[in-house]
Amino acid sequence: MNKYLSIENLNSCFQKQESKLKQLNELLHHYSLLAAHVFVLPNVEKGSEHDPITEITVNKITGNEALDLGLNHYLKLFIHHNNQNISSKAAVRLPGVLCFSVNQLQYHSALSLIEEINKLKAELEHIVTIQSGVNKEQRFEFVHNQLHGLITLNAYRTITPLLNPDSVHFGWANKNIINKVTKDQILQRLEKSYHSGRAVSPYSREQWAELVAREITDIKKLSDDVVLKIKRPVKVQPIARVWYTDQQKQVQYACPLPIIAFYVNYGDNKPKIGELSGYNANAIVHRHKPKAKPLELIIPRLHLYREI
């Protein structure tokens, strides 16, 4: 698609999202609040984005203060919405749940609005990553020339609505993303990098080409039936575990921003909401950790391993 048309679509889509988010904020402020719990996490300061996380302290907020924090969090889409010392490379997370007592009409009005917002978020991501036609390295410039200071991850993150959950508990997820890849796929990736003619900091163009050439040679030496895996560490994330008694079913959600739980004709009963405890990497106990095949690191920068 024409780049200028993509720019027009980007601005139009974002303005619609902002407008709908403000509508949701106003709508939910008029609904009957059953309970609101949000868990404030420490800010990620500039320069510490890639530091390993071993501990996270949690500050619990409840009631109307939690409601205001939660609803305002959906509107925090720009760097200037945060303090100056907070990193613009790490999206601020606010796990929690906002619970409302509603009738059927109120539920459907809110659900329709949330679905519109989530659709616009997906559309915005599609415009930036696909429709614009710009490569990954140019996306930042493409977005910030139009929407200066936009935190794209905040703008992409969808809102999770729930209907009549019996309980909402919280925890932490800390897993690796593991993808199986073939020798040919890795060679194609390396050769594309080699022929691009670009340099990657802190290397000069010549040093980078030399490094990638060595990596290509190392991969070619491997047998054709080698089992290769990319095992990429993921930073610890807050999650919500939602229980439905009638269905005897638990559903787990990523929870970087508050979940919204609607209770239709629920009366004055208070929903069961758990705590989010502080995170301590050294205190984790795995209930069941399947035995994995031993791996040997082949290319550290790609997190590429081979089974041995």
UniProtKB/TrEMBL annotation:
GO terms for biological process: DNA replication termination. Keywords: Cytoplasm, DNA replication, DNA-binding. InterPro entries: DNA_replication_term_site-bd (IPR008865), Tus_dom1 (IPR036381), Tus_sf (IPR036384). GO terms for cellular component: cytoplasm. One of its GO terms (molecular function) is DNA binding. Gene3D superfamilies: 3.30.54.10, Replication terminator Tus, domain 1 superfamily/Replication terminator Tus (3.50.14.10). Pfam families: Ter (PF05472). Coiled coil: none annotated. This is DNA replication terminus site-binding protein. It comes from Photorhabdus asymbiotica subsp. asymbiotica (strain ATCC 43949 / 3105-77). The lineage of its organism: Bacteria, Pseudomonadati, Pseudomonadota, Gammaproteobacteria, Enterobacterales. The gene is tus.
